[in-house]
Specification:
With 70 residues, the protein is mostly helical. It has helices at 7-16, 32-41, 53-66; strands at residues 24-27, 45-48. Helix 2 links the parallel strand 1 (24-27) and strand 2. The longest helix is centred in the C-terminal third of the chain and has 14 residues, at 53-66. The termini are far apart. 9% of the residues are buried.
């Protein structure tokens, strides 16, 4: 958990500023409603902890490809 603010709040803040930075959520929470809320708020992808480092790198590369290197 993040101190003072949660991931959902950060995603909403970033998207409210029209910032198109890809957002990959790394979370310990795996409730479907939480994941859906994050994705609907503007997150691009998510991984539930614990995760495989190779999968994290592959997902990060995919986000970069989709954003054309941005």
């Amino acid at each position: 958990m993040l101190p003072g603010v949660d991931g959902l709040g950060i995603v909403r803040h970033v998207r409210k500023r029209n910032d198109g930075t890809p957002i990959l959520i790394l979370t310990a929470r795996d409730e479907r409603t939480h994941v859906i809320e994050l994705l609907n708020a503007g997150a691009d992808d998510y991984l539930t902890k614990p995760f495989d480092l190779g999968e994290l790198l592959a997902r990060a590369k995919a986000l970069i490809r989709r954003g054309k290197g941005v």
